[in-house]
Specification:
Number of strands: 2
Strand order of the largest sheet: 1-2
């Protein structure tokens, strides 16, 4: 049997059985899956294309609001839902809940790419630090904008429809969102794995290596950059819809458009694992999530400080990430370093 197929079968079996073997950690595994998606999708811009974006959190938060608003708005008035305490006043039947969830996740995957396409034409014209700062402003602006719309709860936020008690048991909802998040991870992985082998993937790498030269050869770089951002927005929007249902509450600043936490963490996870690689962001997300959980448990009250030190350690000691380190030490097993030129400069 092919080694890659065997690895895939083992990973698939582990993901299927994990929530049944350790039922108390289902939400933990779901959140880890979301983190993996965040890292993989950021790497489309930051790793493959060389554009360090701090604005991808916009599509995550937008997908969250779109999904939850759809779940509510299909059957109730969204404004009345928020004014009257949400699920404390209105209850979804099983049919309403699942119809709303499916519709919400579909729209959460469709609307963010449209927004990415509309704003990409302007902001993707920026380069370097200007692009990074511009995208950082997008996340801040999105949070403030959502906080000013009373229909979706304003700064207070909005509650999420409660999973109907008539369906399954108290763990059914957790299992559903776990398997949805895992399906999203596999979907994103195999799609990006295919994408990076196509002409589109080569175009992204050409932009990263020398955008001016790529343009001089007739490559429509802006089109490729915009489409790459739309692809990230698609997966991020669905991830936001799933995450909102898992959390059970949507807040514009601390949950949906949490640029200071999730917006930065997705960058760190990709860098830690090795940006510009397929497996790097996945490895980085797993390692970072385990470290973050350890810091939050062992250093409660000082977790932000210790996380800051972790950021410094990542930047100084892992400039090419875990995959870059492994490729340097074990080239016969892991191949060449992606950013070999940058590594030689450090």
């Amino acid at each position: 049997m092919n080694k890659n197929i065997l690895i895939f079968i083992i990973i698939l079996l582990l993901t299927i059985t994990a929530p049944h073997l350790i039922p108390s950690r289902v939400v933990y595994f779901t959140t880890l899956s979301i983190f993996i998606v965040l890292a993989m999708t950021w790497d489309v811009q930051g790793g493959q294309m060389g554009y360090n974006s701090f604005g991808n959190i916009v599509f995550f938060g937008l997908g969250m609001y779109v999904c939850i608003s759809t779940q509510v708005g299909l059957f109730f008035d969204v404004f009345e839902w928020n004014e009257s305490g949400g699920e404390k006043t209105f209850l979804h039947t099983p049919n309403q809940y699942f119809i709303g969830l499916v519709a919400g996740l579909i729209l959460a995957g469709l609307i963010p790419p449209i927004i990415a396409y509309l704003i990409g034409g302007g902001i993707l014209g920026l380069r370097g630090h200007y692009f990074a700062i511009g995208t950082l402003g997008l996340g801040v602006a999105a949070a403030e904008l959502a906080g000013g719309i009373d229909t979706i709860g304003g700064t207070v936020g909005m509650t999420v429809p409660v999973f109907p008690k008539e369906v399954g048991n108290i763990h059914t909802d957790k299992l559903i969102f776990y398997y949805l998040s895992v399906a999203l991870v596999f979907g994103a992985f195999f799609f990006l794995r295919w994408l990076y082998t196509t002409r589109f993937g080569l175009a992204l790498n050409a932009i990263r290596d020398d955008e001016d030269k790529a343009e001089s050869m007739g490559m429509p770089t802006k089109k490729y950059k915009t489409l790459g951002w739309c692809i990230s927005a698609f997966f991020l929007g669905i991830a936001g819809g799933i995450s909102g249902n898992v959390v059970g509450y949507v807040d514009p600043h601390d949950i949906a458009f949490a640029g200071a936490t999730l917006g930065v963490w997705m960058v760190l996870m990709a860098i830690l694992g090795g940006k510009g690689t397929l497996w790097g962001p996945i490895i980085g997300a797993i390692v970072f999530y385990l470290l973050k959980d350890f810091l939050w448990v062992k250093f409660l009250g000082w977790q932000r400080v210790t996380l800051g030190f972790l950021i410094v350690i990542i930047v100084i000691f892992f400039p090419t990430g875990i995959m870059g380190y492994l490729r340097t030490k074990f080239p016969q097993m892991f191949g060449e370093v992606v950013d070999e030129g940058e590594q030689n400069k450090t």
